Amino acid sequence: MPAIPSLGNLRGRAANRGNKVRSPIPVPPAAYVVDCAVYVDGERLAGDWTHSAAIEEVRRRREGFVWIGLHEPDESQIQGIADTFGLHELAVEDAVHAHQRPKLERYDDTLFMVFRTVRYVEHASPTTANEIVESGELMAFLGTDFIITVRHGNHSGLARLRQELESDPEQLAHGPASVLHAVADHVVDHFLDVTESIEDDIDEMETQVFAPRSPVTSEQIYLMKREVLELRRAVMPLAMPLRRLSEGYTRLVPDDVRSYFRNVHDHLTNVSERVAGFDELLTTLVDATLAKITLQLNSDMRKITAWAAIIAVPTALAGIYGMNFDYMPELNLRYGYPMTVAVILGICLLLYRIFRKNRWL
Predict the structure, then answer these.
(1) Same structural domain for residues 84 and 220?
(2) Burial group, residue 354, by CB count within 10 angstroms (0-12, 13-18, 19+)
(3) Residue 166 sits in the same domain as residue 36
(4) What is the mean pLDDT of the chain?
């Protein structure tokens, strides 16, 4: 005879059905895998590849490399790729959560490099803009036969860069290190573009600061300094990783690619010097703005003082005649009132001309 379930068992099953955890909806790879390609002798192999099939093809041929582009993957989405290519868990965590400063780290036979990308936000005037520089991040995992790029942010896409490289098979024939160089060069070129745009904004702000009755305030200049600081955080820390790559830090970067990193480092040095100059110039503009404000306050105080001295004359005479003493001979004069008014106007006019001559008014 089959056992009859107890009331407690029935309640437990009902509770389990009510608390059943729903499995998350799987995200298709197309949502975060931008592109996955196999390159042999600088030429892209035809077909659509998964990350596992691509690396198997490369290792079966014993030549070529895989380039995978990802856009803002989460931990579950990148885990399969990390297991297939043997990526270090700390580097994977940095690639997922982002918010890293530019750096270069080595994990066994894999390099992990972080770039901060910037984009210039168009605006009508630097004196009214709330945001001038928008930043993002770009990470790269470099191995002997693969490179994986992870992008965070809605700008600095690599689709056009990939097309340019595919049109130059000789460069891609150098291996995945050539892609890392192209990415670094792409990021630094964007630095140059943003730097030139900010330089134009600073020139415009400088012109307005020294113009008469300038509407520029110190708060607007501090806003510009904050945006320059955002650019500086992306540019300055990148110098050391590029120098290490150009000096033979790892065998993953061949000698014929190393010289290209020196060129990128030279461009970055140029950007760094210009950004440092921006900060000094903005500090000077802040000092000039505060000096103009102080000078304007002094001018206003002189005007107030001059008008107070002029008004003191009729005030003093009116105070004397308002005392209403019995023995005041001036009260009995027939022309006392017009004479008093004339004296007041004469003294006030004299003081006005004196202050005007001394440029107090």
Answers:
(1) yes
(2) middle
(3) yes
(4) 83
